[in-house]
Amino acid sequence: MVKIAIAGGTGHQEVAREIIDALVASGKHEITIFSRGSNAPTGLPSATKWQTVDYQDKNSLVQGLQGVHTLLSFVQLLSDPNQESQRNLIDAVVLAGVKRFAPSEYGSKGTTDMGWWDGKQKIRQYLEEVNRTEKVIDQQTLQVLEYTLFQPGLFLDYLAFPHKTANHVEPLQIGFNFERLRAMVVEGHEDAVITLTTAADLAAIVARAVEYEGTWPTTSGIRGNRLTFSQIIEIGERVRGRPFEVGKVKLEDLEAGELKSSWDLEAVHKAVSPDEASAFQKTVSIGFLLSSAKCAWDSSGEMNQTFPDYKFTSAEEFLTRIWERKP
């Protein structure tokens, strides 16, 4: 049994809820979910505990982390531009002697051109700084903190929009619209690669990683499917039985902040306020396309190598199941 703490596991943290469910289903762990509020969060599995914490108080965090083996963070990046909460968590983890830490990642390998994920880069750099001062135990030089970055790429579930295919992750549209037979592609980068992994597969791999007795790699890339834009469109046309309208945008226009496309995204994450939604949709579309052209979504495969027996959900089988017989 491993004692696990979850930071940011309440509110709109859909990915956290997927992973919490997978950890609970294993029946092997004691799970405590940190909450900023003083009242018990609703909807959490009965097998979990919850604890009020103040992310600005390191002493409080150290106290709450006593005896914890692994801390998984899902702290909302947009709500904390300077990433003070996660920095404090990392400091507290070191002070409390927590063995393992996973920061709030669960997406792309790179962060280039995705300003909404600047916080990820800040935390990656901070974790590197923390480990620059090594510790020596029994004449072995070890990291100050064992940590990993879980990077599954894009959720395959998003290609089912507007249909919900995960227990908690809500439908979201990004770059492809299977319902309306549309796709956006950067001209000349039709073979840009995207890693696509279901939310359920991510949760299953994280649950396995928690039990893994070896040392976590610094990066835990998860490759459910590795496909180019062209291959995704080809799959879409097969499962939908009709051609897609492919809007090709120029790299130089995107770099200039212009999205010359005939269609826009229809849904954004719940963490984005309604008055910011329109601007954020454009920002996400441009950032996703630019970053894809620069290999940001081509996740590495460390977790595939660590768990070679795990069978990931096939994109074509998944999308066929969702879209067959749909108008």
UniProtKB/TrEMBL annotation:
InterPro entries recorded:
NAD(P)-bd_dom_sf (IPR036291), NmrA-like (IPR008030), NmrA/Isoflavone_reductase-like (IPR051609)
The NmrA-like domain covers: 3-318
Q: Which family does it belong to?
A: Belongs to the NmrA-type oxidoreductase family. Isoflavone reductase subfamily.
Organism the protein comes from: Apiospora hydei
Q: Which UniProt keywords apply?
A: NADP, Oxidoreductase
Pfam families, alphabetically? Answer: NmrA
- The organism's superkingdom is given as Eukaryota
Q: What name goes with this protein?
A: NmrA-like domain-containing protein
